[in-house]
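Project standup — Tuesday

K.O.: blocked on the structure for the chain from last sprint. Re-posting the sequence here as requested.
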Amino acid sequence: MMRPFAVTRGDGPVILGFPHTGTYVPDNIAANLNEEGRLLRDTDWHVHDLYAGLLPGATTVRAIFHRYVIDANRDPSGASLYPGQTGTGLIPLSTFDNVPIWQQGREPDAAEAARRLTMFHAPYHAALQQEIARVRARHGVAVLFDCHSIRSVIPWMFEGTLPDFNIGTNLGQSCALSIEQDVLRICAASGRSHVLNGRFCGGWTTRHYGRPEQNIHAIQLELAQSSHLAQEAPPFSLSAPSMDALRPILADILHAIATRAYQLAA
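H.V.: unblocked you, prediction finished:
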């Protein structure tokens, strides 16, 4: 079996996490998906391409497997990220529109979930944790920037239209205030819609690794896919003009974070 993650090591203080851009589904798992599931609709389409080359020296850790195999940004215990709100779990049973993705009677059971935790979820996070430790040992600080996207309109999960930039810091607990404010400032200056700790205030990755008191900071940016896709439906292709307009803003964010990281380490 292929390795479930890919790491590119950099020499700077920033780590980019990509838990949801992978599209690999092993044949034995794909055989159990229904027609809707095989569309892989809830992928963070092209997000790793959006960030490619924006910050020289950044380390990247990317999950190769699809979130329908197992969601790398969910608590391995299965606990809900947003108790009382609608959403998908560790191994999703439906899309973000609450449409089933597995053939009837072929949904993954507890034993299968445990197997996928061992084969996919745990190795990804072991790699991520190793890179955080390496970067912090080198610089005295590490900043994990978790990169995400989602369709801009999903009535089952939230009302209305999602802002272009959705910043998540676990209500200010996962990173230094200065990092949070740097990102918020750049998003606001862009003139685009934005929110801090709104519907998405950081997934399990942000909450689990963000330890500002140890100079390990984590922040999540959820992009509305309308900001960079030609259409939020198959084939989910990129819009080159939208991508060209968005990348300089993302570059400003990453460079600001890197500058702030060196200040926090001083």
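K.O.: great, moving the ticket to review. The chain has a mean pLDDT of 96. The first helix runs from residue 27 to 30.
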